[in-house]
């Protein structure tokens, strides 16, 4: 997989509703495909010249990352924030962020951490954090300065200020937004693996990167209507649990391969689709792990409910500390995810699709 692509995708600015930079970055790596976008920033990648009557497999990943928005500007120049997506408040104070102004300028800010010297006992406990009482400091000393000199406007989007790096020796990526730029990279990589054999593939593969997942899987409600898939493969930068749950019980361990999600709050996976994918993983020696998630949701929740019902295979790249500034993930897990997706697509035939879609039930 192309590390430079992963780097650019991770560094791209793309909180929910502001995914244009991620779309432009992906477009740079999709020169051989037919690409298009829509009014909410969903991005579609199609194999050129493929017959339209084949069954359609949609490859999904979301473009957006958890971010924030400037909610108001106070008289002293501090900014208040609105969350776009599910950051936990304990991971925000003392972190730096980037604010994109209306003119496109990036302004660095620090989410205020009140010096311990000024804290009350209850503040020192770190309990009862509220976003309404957190402030963002861009270095301005008045509202006028924040607006006129820094160019800040309410509604400006914000992302964590983190720069990607790759540890080649250990195969580890460090950066922000692996949820879900890891998935976006997997779609491009899967489609590149299949490009040379596109005419002989049993299905038509369409990449659909969706906007606004972190605010309620909104983009996928549109992409699935446009793509009209028979089957879908949903890629996620899934949260790693290996530092929080004992080794025997962990279901999202870094360097343990692609994570096949059996269930979460949004979708109960199609057992036939999973069985088929695992059979191929075994056959081709692709490392995988299974997850039964008590929480979480993905675009599969929306895609599965469209058209005539769409079986989805949810493939995760275990990513540490998602929904906070700094993430780790392993290149080998991303490669396992795209290899499995490519093998699944190559192996499909009419009978297999009928079986997955329960058309042979009686
Ligand atoms: Zn995600």
Automatic annotation (TrEMBL):
The active site is at residue 213. Signal peptide: none annotated. Zn(2+) 1 binds at residues 62, 179, 236. One of its GO terms (biological process) is proteolysis. Pfam families: Peptidase_M42. Binds 2 divalent metal cations per subunit. GO terms for molecular function: aminopeptidase activity; metal ion binding. InterPro entries: Peptidase_M42, Peptidase_M42_aminopept, Peptidase_M42_dom2. Its cofactor is a divalent metal cation. Zn(2+) 2 binds at residues 179, 214, 323. Keywords: Aminopeptidase, Hydrolase, Metal-binding, Protease. Belongs to the peptidase M42 family. This is M42 family peptidase. The lineage of its organism: Bacteria, Bacillati, Bacillota, Clostridia, Lachnospirales.
């Amino acid at each position: 997989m192309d590390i430079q692509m992963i780097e650019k995708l991770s560094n791209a600015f793309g909180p929910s509703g502001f995914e244009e930079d991620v779309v432009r970055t992906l477009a740079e790596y999709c020169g051989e495909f037919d690409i298009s976008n829509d009014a909410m920033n969903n991005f579609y990648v199609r194999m050129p010249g493929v017959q339209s009557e084949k069954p359609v497999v949609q490859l999904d990943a979301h473009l957006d990352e958890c971010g924030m928005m400037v909610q108001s500007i106070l008289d002293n120049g501090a900014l208040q924030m609105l969350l776009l997506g599910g950051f936990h408040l304990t991971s925000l104070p003392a972190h730096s962020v980037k604010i994109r102004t209306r003119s496109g300028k990036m302004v660095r800010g620090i989410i205020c951490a009140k010096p311990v010297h000024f804290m009350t006992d209850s503040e020192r406990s770190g309990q009862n954090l509220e976003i309404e009482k957190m402030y963002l400091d861009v270095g301005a000393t008045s509202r006028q300065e924040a607006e006129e000199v820094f160019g800040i406007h309410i509604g400006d989007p914000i992302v964590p200020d983190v720069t990607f790096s790759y540890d080649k020796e250990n195969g580890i990526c460090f950066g922000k937004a692996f949820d879900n730029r890891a998935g976006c990279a997997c779609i491009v990589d899967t489609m590149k693996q299949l490009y040379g054999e596109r005419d002989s593939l049993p299905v038509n593969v369409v990449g659909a990167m969706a906007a606004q997942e972190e605010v309620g899987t909104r983009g996928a409600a549109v992409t699935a209507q446009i793509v009209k898939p028979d089957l879908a493969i949903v890629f996620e930068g899934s949260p790693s649990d290996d530092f929080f749950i004992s080794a025997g019980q962990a279901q999202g361990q870094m360097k343990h391969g692609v994570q096949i999600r059996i269930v979460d709050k949004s979708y109960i996976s199609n057992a036939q689709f999973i069985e088929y994918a695992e059979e191929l993983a075994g056959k081709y020696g692709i490392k995988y792990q299974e997850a039964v998630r008590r929480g979480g949701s993905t675009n599969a929740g929306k895609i599965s409910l469209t058209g005539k019902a769409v079986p989805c295979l949810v493939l995760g790249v275990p990513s540490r500390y998602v929904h906070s500034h700094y993430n780790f993930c392993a290149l080998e897990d991303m490669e396992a995810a795209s290899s499995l997706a490519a093998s699944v697509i190559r192996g499909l035939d009419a009978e297999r699709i009928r079986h997955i879609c329960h058309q042979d039930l009686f």
